[in-house]
Amino acid sequence: MDFKRKPFYDFVKRLFDIIFSLLFIIVFFVFYILVAFIVAVSDKKGKPFFVQERVGKNGKTFKLYKFRTMCPDAEEIKESLMHMNEADGPVFKIKDDPRITKVGKFLRKTNIDELPQMLNILKGDMSFVGPRPPLPLEVKHYREEDKFRLLVKPGLTCYWQARPNRNDISFEEWMELDRKYIEDRSLWTDIKIIFKTAYVILANRDGR
Question: Is the pLDDT assigned to residue 208 strictly greater than 60?
């Protein structure tokens, strides 16, 4: 693909990320504590936060933060569920995943589980808008043409996440939408994606 560097856009975007992620953490700090408490009390076998290695810009790995929505041994159980994988491409996804807790289902449905990633945005690992950060194992199975996703900083949302029933799209459609974002990326594009994502979440049309 024709990748164009945009230094002014990158500078303004980073400034936006710092200001709004910090503001969000400060304003919703008590809410973070409340959600963490509910997760911890609902399933005392695990920690309230889930930390996982992901791949960011230029292939650099980082620790991604989420509220825990699965049982503590979810990664171990995953191997026994591989035959149920409903996604194509190098990703794993099944409907009604048995590893998800009752509280986890609500957190995922409302996207509250993603809120700790505001810390990733503040640290500079991620941005508000960009391709979702893949797992190292997924990247190992990328075709050469899929690696374009690593040219920019990963994000909390992107084109495909701003679509209704986003979980129904194929891997090829997902890659095509990420490619489109990287080519289209601008401050106006980012703002539109943020508002579209908010609409999809509030209208409960994200397919979770």
Answer: no
